[in-house]
Amino acid sequence: MAKLIIVPTPIGNLEDITLRAINVLKECDLILCEDTRTSSKLLRHFQIDKPCIAYHMNNEHKSMARFIDVIKSKEKVCLISDAGTPAISDPGFLIVRECIKNEIEVECLPGPTAFVPALVASGIPCDRFFFYGFLPHKKGRQTALMSLAEMENTIVLYESPHRLIKALEQIKEFFGENRQVCVAREISKMYESYIRGTAEEVLNHYKEKESIKGEIVIILAGKE
Ligand code: SAM
């Protein structure tokens, strides 16, 4: 019986991979990788030597039928992305849905993802939260910010370092300067940092920096 196994991989520190993830990758027949070159470093590090094929946003639509045929012809196929949990702001949802339609068993291993440590360490309530991921760059951005600003639950955004200042300026504008914000940067890496404060304080902190590097999660308190 064919099975698709979604395998989370480290978002920084290689030690964050689970023992189960390593074993499952070692035992599978094939690995679908978002980027085979990126994943080859991780796989080599853990001495995992399995055939890999690319599954990414540029081929997932047009080659889906072929991917399903390939999975059906195997026992265990793993899906990994460049970092974290596939399908969380990464390719994965379409193949999961298609496997379910084709009665292929789907399993997702628990493991690394950026938003959980960011949310938990933010100090902002994490009992109810809304994961939004990346804001639209242009069209729909203002509408998204306006509706997010009205939410009473904590909000989770993914952001790139070169858009952080613009995002924080807009958060201050749409959510108000006193909204509690946490910027989690480089989680599980050497220069991990959490900057917590009001929208204005966090914006001012980053405005003083000469350059902003690394990967970023923004946590926003809900509307009171
Ligand atoms: N699938 C991944 C997950 O499970 O979190 C997310 C992939 S998405 C393409 C990449 C974004 O995740 C980055 O732009 C950043 O917002 C966030 N991210 C990934 N690794 C991170 C880290 N180590 N620290 C902070 N944010 C991170």
Q: Can you describe what's shown?
A:
With 224 residues, the chain is of the alpha/beta class. The chain folds into two domains: 3-108, Cobalt-precorrin-4 Transmethylase, domain 1; 115-220, Methyltransferase, Cobalt-precorrin-4 Transmethylase, Domain 2, CATH 3.30.950. Helices cover 33% and strands 22% of the residues. The protein is built from eight helices and ten strands. Strands 3-2-4-1-5 form a five-stranded parallel β-sheet, with helices on both faces. A five-stranded mixed β-sheet has the order 6-7-10-8-9, with helices on both faces. The longest helix has 12 residues, at 164-175. The site of S-adenosylmethionine (SAM) has 24 residues, from strand 7, strand 8 and strand 10.
β-sheet strand percentage = 15-25%
Average of pLDDT: 98
Number of strands: 10
Could you say which small molecules are bound to this protein?
A: S-adenosylmethionine
What is the assigned CATH homologous superfamily of the largest domain? Answer: Tetrapyrrole methylase, N-terminal domain
Q: Which stretches are low in confidence, meaning pLDDT under 50 for 5 or more residues running?
A: none
Order of strands, main sheet, comes to 3-2-4-1-5
Distance between the termini: 50 Å
Q: What is the alpha-carbon Rg in Å?
A: 19 Å
Q: Judging by the overall fold, what is the CATH architecture of the largest domain? A: 3-Layer(aba) Sandwich
CATH topology of the largest domain: Cobalt-precorrin-4 Transmethylase, domain 1
Spatial shape:
elongated
